[in-house]
Amino acid sequence: MALADSARGLPNGGGVSPAAGSGGAAAAAAGSGAAAAAGGWSSFPEIVELNVGGQVYVTRRCTVVSVRDSLLWRMFSQQQPGELPRDSKGRFFLDRDGFLFRYILDYLRDLQLVLPEHFPERSRLQREAEYFQLPDLARRLAQARVAAARPAALHRDGSVYADEPPPPPLLGYLEAEPLEGGGGGAAASAPSPTASRSPSGGPLLTPSQSLDGAGGRRSGYITIGYRGSYTIGREAQADAKFRRVARITVCGKTALAKEVFGETLNESRDPDRPPERYTARYYLKFNFLEQAFDRLSEAGFRMAACSSTGTCAFAPEQGGPADDKIWTSYTEYVFCRD
User: How many angstroms separate the Cα of 165 from the Cα of each of 111, 155, 198?
Assistant: First the structure.
C-alpha cells in the first residue's frame, strides 16, 4: 500500500488537495505520471540548481527524476516549483549532507555505484540513500559494508586476498613453530624480532602499516594550527576581548589523525585520502585548543615544538572603535608519538 506523499517525507506535503475528491486525485496522479514519463513538468527549468547543506550543485532536471518513486522524483515531478523550499538566491534547498550528495547525484546520472578506494563514509552514504528513497543504492552500500567487514588476509608481500583462506604462519614473519625432533631449539620457537602483528592478534602488516612495540600504536607527527585574533582597547585589562579561534587545522598522516580525533575530524576538504597518505586539509569540528591537546595527550602524543607569527592593526581600519587594536596570529603546535 503506497503512502501519501506527506507521509513518505516529501517536503511541504505535496499531493492532491482533499477537496479535489478521489476522481480528481486519480486524474492528477495519472497526469503527473504521464508528465514524468514524457520527460518533464514544464514548470521546472531544464537546468536545476540545488543547495544541499550549503553545497551548490547544478544538474539537469532529467537527472534528479531518473529514479521513479524516489524523493527527488516526487519533488521535481509531483510538485510545482513554488511548493519547494529555496535559499536566498532561489536555488532549491535540501537540508542534507552536501558532501555526500555528490555520490547520490553520480548514482542518479547512470545508476552505477563508483566510490573511491578508501571511502570511510559508507554507512552515512547508506543513510542518505535511504532518505532519498533509493533502495537499489542502499542495498549495494549494505552489501559493500558487509564485504568490507570481512577480515582480509595479507600475503607476505603485503597484497590482500579476501576470498581464500590465509596460509599457515611463515617462519620469520609470524610465530615460528618448533621443528620436528627439537631442531632449532629456542631460536626456532621464538617469534621473529621483525614480526608485526596487530594488538588483537590480526594478520601481518606491511612495513608502512607496522605498529611500534610499546602499546601497539603507530608513531608519527601531527601538527595543529589555528588562526586567532583578539582586540585590546584603551583600557587594556578591562576591554581585552580574548582569543577567538576560527578553525583548528590538522596536518599529518590520515590514519593518525583519524585515530586521535575520530568523529570530531572534518574530512570534507580532503575526503578520499588513503590512510597511509598525508594531508594538510583536515580541520576539527570544535574550536577549543585545549580539547585538541587533551585528545593528543590521551593518545600518547607529546608537544615537540611550536611557532607563532602575529600582526597588529588599528580597529578603524577594520571598521571598529578608534582606540582599539586588533591582534591577529597564526600558531602551529607539533606533536610527536615515538
Answer: 34, 11, 19
Task: Kindly provide the residue ranges of all beta strands, DSSP E only, lying in the chain, ordered along the sequence.
Answer: 47-52, 55-60, 92-94, 153-154, 160-161, 220-232, 241-253, 265-266, 278-284, 302-314, 325-337
What b/e sequence results for 199-228 when a residue is b if at least 16 CB atoms lie within 10 Å of its CB, and e otherwise?
eeeeebeeeeeeeeeeeebeebbbbbbbeb
**124-128, 154-158, 201-205, 261-265: least confidently modelled range:** 201-205
Cell of 148: 568490507
**Could you read off the pLDDT of 307-316 as tens digits, one per residue?**
998 888 766 6
Output 317-326 pairs: Cβ under 8 A, ≥24 positions apart: 320/231, 321/233, 323/233, 323/234, 324/231, 324/232, 324/233, 324/234, 324/239, 325/231, 325/232, 325/233, 326/229, 326/230, 326/231
* Interatomic CA distance for residues 21 and 32, integer angstroms: 16
Angle between helices 289-298 and 254-261 (to 10 degrees): 100
Looking at residue 41, its pLDDT comes to: 44
Look up cell 607563532; give the residue.
308
Q: Which H helix or E strand runs over 275?
A: none
- Residue 10 identity (one-letter amino acid): L
- The reported pLDDT for the residue numbered 240 is 53
Res 110: pLDDT: 92
DSSP 39: T
Which pLDDT value is given to residue 121?
86
| Least confident residue range of 98-107, 151-160, 288-297 | 151-160
8 three-state secondary structure: coil
Q: How far is CA 263 from CA 113, 252, 258, 283, in A?
A: 25, 17, 8, 11
Report which DSSP code applies to 51: E
C-alpha closest to that of 313 among 299, 327, 297, 301: 327
Q: Flag whether pLDDT at 163 surpasses 50.
A: no
Asked if 197 and 265 count as a contact pair (C-beta separation under 8 A), the reply is no
Q: What is the mean pLDDT of residues 119-128?
A: 89
User: Do 223 and 332 touch, CB atoms closer than 8 A?
Assistant: yes
